[in-house]
Amino acid sequence: MKTKLVKTITMLAALAVLSLAACAPAAATETAPQPTQTPYIIVVTPTAVEATATSIPTEAPATPTAEAAQTDEAPKFFRDEFEGDLDDYEQTLWTGRFGKADVYLEDGKLKFRLNAMYLAPYLTYEPHTYTDVRLEVSAENLAYNDNHITLVCRYDEELGWYEFNIGSNGLFRINYYDNTLVKGHVRLWNGGSTDIKMGRQINTIKAECIGTQLSLYVNDVLLKTVEHKDLKEGRVGVGVSSFESFPVNVDFEYLDISQP
């Protein structure tokens, strides 16, 4: 009886040990709940973006070269065939009434239309002044012979200018307009030439201002050279004058400004 009781106690103890062993792994695997972790978020602020952008090296804007800038400047020596506009010219009416003289471009020609007596509109090239210069025009007289077709050099509104005048009646003049003492024209030379085509014809007129020498050519023939020393430099231009007969209509096909 005692032996049977001992076996029973022993079996119960063994069962208890087995039960504890079976429960131990489950207890070991069970862990306490972990706190939830907030995921990492990378935020790129505008400041960081701007800093990155400005840190990239960029090329400096190209500056215009002297050659490129020169292309925008009005030329000094050139032939104007009057296909564009008159923006680089200034018109001055030295005698006569405003509204009676009309100067404009049409059909590739510079046209002077004078509809009163004693008109003298001049057109001067404004961008540059010249010391020594050669001027040439092709001018057609379309109305009365009583007129002057004029080339101007060393034009200065305060001091005066030199002018070379051809009349379609065969006469010519070289004048100095003195705007300081005389306040008018001083005749340096006048004469006539059969080389001037009279009437409604075309004449090629050339004037040279070189140092103190003033030379006038018509149709490639030298008419006269005179000496004068008062004016050193100034602008250049063309003009047309009427006298007692009008209308005076003159067309210029081109104006050539060149170095002598």
Quickly list its features:
260 residues; alpha+beta; Jelly Rolls; eight-stranded antiparallel beta sheet; seven-stranded antiparallel beta sheet; 3 helices; 17% helix; 44% strand
Q: Summed up, what is this model?
A:
With 260 residues, the protein is of the alpha+beta class. The chain has 3 helices and 15 strands.
Account of the protein in words:
- With 260 residues, this protein is of the alpha+beta class.
- The strands form two sheets. Strands 1, 3, 4, 6, 11, 12, 13 and 15 form an eight-stranded antiparallel beta sheet that branches. It has a seven-stranded antiparallel beta sheet with strand order 2-5-14-7-8-9-10, with no helix packed on it.
- It has helices at residues 2-29, 46-54, 66-71, and strands spanning 78-80, 89-93, 101-106, 109-114, 121-130, 133-141, 147-156, 160-166, 171-178, 184-192, 202-210, 213-218, 221-227, 234-242, 248-258.
- The protein is built from three helices and 15 strands.
- The termini are far apart.
